[in-house]
Write a structure and sequence with these properties.
This protein has four helices and four strands, in the order ααββαββα. It is of the alpha+beta class. The longest helix has 45 residues.
């Protein structure tokens, strides 16, 4: 327990602010880009995440139809999905992990670790092929968990 407390303290201290070196590098990068270059960069990043989100929604429709509900992400790097017939997605997340897919059960986003039918998926840095494979794995794990919860 003392080691865990020290590790937690180190993590908390390390994440209060970004490092001075990172801040200095960012300032130099922004100076290099200039105002117009920064705006072009932001446009590229927005298009990239929009494309990734559209790909995730396409595969969700293909593989999760009837198994889950979702709405297309309006931005960011994550997609929230409500799993039909599953009250606690913690077991589902473990089953997905056993198959090589990392998802986060909604329970970890509640203040009291209450059961949740939701999962959060990240789609930002995977290829289209990895995205499709992930939705295939998720669909298999959902079907298995739905049977287990009956």
């Amino acid at each position: 327990q003392p080691l865990l407390n020290k590790l937690k303290l180190m993590k908390d201290i390390g994440s209060l602010t970004s490092s001075g070196l990172s801040q200095a590098m960012l300032v130099q990068f922004l100076r290099h880009l200039g105002h117009d270059g920064y705006l072009r960069h932001v446009d590229k990043v927005m298009e990239y995440y929009k494309s990734r989100a559209q790909t995730a929604v396409r595969f969700a429709k293909q593989y999760l139809n009837g198994l889950a509900d979702w709405s297309g992400p309006s931005g960011g790097m994550f997609m929230w999905i409500r799993i039909k017939g599953v009250q606690n997605t913690a077991a589902l997340a473990r089953k997905a992990l056993e198959r090589g897919l990392i998802i986060v059960a909604g329970t970890y986003f509640t203040a009291t670790n209450q059961k949740s039918a939701y999962v959060r998926l990240s789609y930002s840095i995977i290829t289209d092929e990895e995205c499709e494979q992930g939705f295939k794995i998720l669909a298999e794990a959902i079907r298995e968990e739905q049977l287990a919860e009956k």
